[in-house]
Specification:
Elements (H helix, E strand, L loop, with lengths): L1 H6 L7 E5 L5 H10 L4 E6 L2 H17 L4 E6 L11 E7 L8 H9 L2 E13 L4 E3 L3 H16 L10 H7 L6 E5 L2 E3 L5 H12 L9 H4 L1 H14 L3 E3 L2 E7 L1 H11 L1
Parallel strand pairs: 1-2, 1-4, 2-3, 4-5
Antiparallel strand pairs: 5-10, 6-9, 7-10, 8-9
Bound molecules: S-adenosylmethionine.
């Protein structure tokens, strides 16, 4: 995300909007990049992650000079921000928004003429293990079926290009990253278990915590992988950034 922001070429002092900021991981990174002359507004529809993000921002402000950080609780399906932004950023949020192109189109009205839209999303279907065990195959089924039954789209990352164009944004630059978890220290087993745990309540009729034996799942996944020297490929992290400024620079470079 810092790479995406710096591609806009004018990071310090920016006014940034972080959509679906959650507990503030990306927001705090953006605050560091824009510096004390900049400001970041985080928006999320859920009060509890916002509360955590507020606490983290307060602790940051107590430790050092930082950007002006503020938050608003709102639903992105209808949210109309006040004022103009130099950058609108978001990570792992479009997958929850059914009408994402129209949401981006609406938010773009609050983007300055040379502003940047920078979004990172996942492609869950690229989650894989090599060599694959029956236990991992079952885990992937639980996760993908759970996400589908919660109405979440699995390939929001690959769809970013089309989503940006449908939103009327300039053609984005895109990059993709994938981590490979291996060995006993890897935290991918806990991450996957955490995702599955978040899918358990109500909406997921795929399996219950008891059937999954969720409390011991991370340890069993680790033992299974370590015993076979297996590696786990995380879902693709697909990033797209788009701005008139980036497009002009690209064209200039070609001349
Ligand atoms: C997976 S978390 C990502 C949080 C953060 N962007 C990050 O990368 O750490 C998704 C966040 O989007 C928020 N969210 C999902 N749909 C939303 C909507 N329609 N309006 C506002 N926030 C939404 C959720 O409440 C959650 O905090």
């Amino acid at each position: 995300m810092s790479d995406l922001l710096s591609r806009a070429g004018r990071a310090p002092g920016m006014r940034v909007l972080d959509v679906g900021c959650g507990v503030g991981d990306v927001l705090l990174l953006a605050a560091r990049i824009v510096g004390e002359k900049g400001s970041v507004l985080g928006v999320d529809r859920s009060a509890s992650p916002l509360e955590i993000a507020r606490g983290r921002a307060k602790r940051r402000a107590a430790l050092c000079e930082t950007a002006t950080i503020s938050f608003v609780e709102a639903d992105l399906n209808t949210f109309e921000p006040d004022g103009a932004f130099d950058a609108i950023i978001g990570r792992f949020v479009l997958l929850y928004v059914p009408e994402r192109a129209s949401m981006l189109r609406r938010l773009t009205r609050s983007l300055r003429r040379v502003g940047v839209m920078a979004i990172q999303e996942l492609d869950v279907s690229s989650l894989a293990q090599t060599p694959e065990s029956p236990m991992f195959a079952q885990l992937r089924r639980w996760i993908t079926d759970g996400l589908k039954s919660a109405g979440v789209e699995l390939d929001t990352g690959s769809q970013l290009y089309a989503t940006f164009l449908r939103a009327g944004l300039p053609r984005p630059q895109m990059v993709c990253a994938q981590l490979v978890h291996c060995g006993p220290e890897a935290r991918g087993y806990e991450d996957a278990t955490q995702v599955l745990r978040s899918l358990l309540p109500k909406r997921n009729r795929v399996a219950t915590a008891t059937e999954i034996e969720i409390d011991s799942l991370a340890d069993r996944l680790r033992q299974d992988a370590v015993a076979r020297d297996a590696v786990v490929f995380t879902p693709w992290f697909v990033s797209a950034s788009s701005s008139d400024a980036i497009l002009k620079r690209e064209r200039g470079a070609r001349c």
